[in-house]
Specification:
Distance between the termini: 49 Å
Strand content: 5-15%
Shape: globular
Number of helices: 18
Structural class: alpha/beta
Number of strands: 14
Strand order of the largest sheet: 4-10-9-8-7-5-6
Length: about 500
């Protein structure tokens, strides 16, 4: 562990750290310092406390959390022993990484040997990626005499992506495609061009957590509209567009992350009509559109851009359908908008890697053969996870999604963060519901991805049952979940997510 004081490091205030921790303490727990240490550790693993971040003084943190100084001191001592916090007299404490941290996220000192990671909805590479890499290797030889910079992306890949939109009923040409380093990068480019500090960005609630981080990093203000049991509250969206006048909107309408919901064609038409009336530009994230577990994406609802092409930027990614290690995504927009986005790209990067683009072009050319078995395997893992949850935690409820990679579980009490904190002690990493909310809450919800091997998923649910029992009490744990009455009393429940399906 390095004890060097990080230069010009950002400082996390005690108030902000307290808010980020959420409901970190298990009800009635005697070892509060262990819970506090686990809560801070979870923020580090989630990336919300980056290495080098200066922590508040012990006295300030004691006051913000309303706990004893002894508890805070003991928690920080435990984190120092784990190598996640470093301190120096007169310089305070800051987040650090242990020496020897490797590259494999599930087997590093930071995550822990044997840790199961269910915080990341990232599946293994599809069969066929290795063959595509082998086929791409000789084809890249022709690029070696060139400079290798393609701000828009290599022509072959842009055409392959455009062809996929055409197959889904949306006429698209290659010059309407911009290849990016993932969908998140595409959204960052749009923020760079279109949003200024203080501008509002309309989002769903819940929504993809990293998008919220990007909005805040741009010093913009997320304006959430809650989803309902049936999906999108279009009345609420229309009202927010009129009243908040957002500079940009962000939607995931195909197998929404984290709920798995999908907006039908009629809803898409109404949504784009509202965007057109208010002249609001929308980013529509289609990262999950190819993960249709019960049908063919070509038979699904038309892309949102087909209803109002001039107000929609569509973003996509190879990370879920093919492999996240390719780190490639794209956006589709009118030509003029693509050119404007490329004009701001040099401030972020100078183009995407050529080799990976050739690999993805090869995969897209063979997508009709490669994707169906991928979908069948993910559907099987979805069913395995659902079966294990029903047997181990029968008081939890969820809607079985027809696509995507996640189960959005409704808990019988507002204990999502406390379960996520406790789960680390059982070798399980989770993302609590509050991570998917613009303003906290969602403590009755927990996202569980079905992206790991069958035996690992079964073991993960076993560990999850132990974590739930430790939070809710032995009697509730044996019953399969939290006792609703006991857990709700004395706890505030910020319920702004979808209503559970029965």
């Amino acid at each position: 562990m390095s004890s060097e004081v990080p230069p010009l490091a950002a400082r996390m205030s005690a108030r902000r750290l307290s808010q980020s921790l959420g409901h970190w303490r298990r009800r009635g727990a005697r070892q509060g310092s262990a819970d506090l240490a686990a809560g801070i550790r979870m923020l580090v693993l989630d990336g919300r406390l980056p290495p080098g971040t200066r922590l508040p003084a012990e006295r300030e943190l004691t006051e913000a959390l309303g706990v004893s100084r002894t508890m805070v001191t003991a928690a920080l001592e435990q984190l120092r022993a784990d190598g996640l916090v470093a301190s120096r007299r007169g310089a305070g404490s800051w987040v650090a990484l242990p020496r020897g941290t490797g590259s494999r996220g599930g087997d590093t000192p930071m995550v822990g040997h044997g840790m199961i990671d269910l915080a990341r909805a990232a599946p293994f590479a599809m069969p066929g990626v290795a063959a595509a890499i082998e086929a791409a290797t000789p084809r890249v030889a022709g690029e070696l005499a060139e400079h290798g910079y393609y701000e828009y992306g290599i022509p072959e890949l842009r055409q392959r992506i455009a062809d996929r939109y055409v197959a889904r009923g949306l006429p698209t040409t290659a010059d309407q495609i911009l290849v990016t380093n993932g969908a998140q990068h595409a959204f960052a480019l749009a923020l760079q061009l279109l949003v200024s500090p203080g501008d509002r960005v309309l989002v769903e609630s819940p929504t993809y957590c990293n998008i919220l981080d990007s909005i805040r990093a741009a010093h913009a203000i997320p304006v959430p509209v809650a989803l309902t049991e049936d999906g999108w509250d279009l009345d609420g969206v229309e009202a927010a567009l009129r009243q908040a006048a957002p500079r940009l909107a962000y939607f995931i309408v195909d197998f929404h992350n984290p709920t798995g919901l999908r907006l039908d064609a009629e809803g898409r038409q109404r949504l784009t009509a509202a965007l057109t009336r208010t002249r609001t530009l929308a980013m529509v994230d289609e990262t999950y559109v190819e993960i249709d577990l019960e049908g063919d994406p070509l038979d699904g609802p038309p892309p949102v851009a087909s209803f109002a092409e001039d107000v929609v930027i569509t973003i996509g990614s190879a990370s879920k359908a093919y492999w996240g290690g390719l780190r490639l995504g794209w956006l589709r927009a009118p030509r003029e908008m693509v050119n404007r986005l490329v004009s701001v790209r040099p401030a972020i990067d100078l183009g995407s890697p050529v080799f990976e683009q050739v690999v993805l072009a090869q995969l897209l050319a063979d997508s009709d053969r490669l994707l169906p078995p991928r979908r069948r395997e993910l559907a099987r893992l979805r069913d395995v996870l659902a079966e294990e949850l029903r047997a181990t935690l029968p008081e939890w409820s969820f809607r079985l999604p027809s696509g995507g990679l996640n189960l959005w579980c409704h808990l019988p009490a507002p204990v999502s963060t406390r379960i996520a904190v406790s789960a680390q002690n059982h070798g399980l990493r989770l993302a609590p519901g509050s991570r998917f909310s613009a303003h906290g809450g969602l403590e009755r919800w927990l996202r569980l991805p079905f992206v790991l091997a069958e035996d690992v998923l079964r073991d993960a649910v076993r560990r999850l049952g132990l974590a739930s029992a430790s939070v809710c009490g032995a009697d509730a744990g044996r019953a399969g979940g939290c006792g609703v009455g006991a857990a709700v009393r004395g706890g505030q429940d910020c319920e702004d997510g979808v209503v559970p399906a029965t």
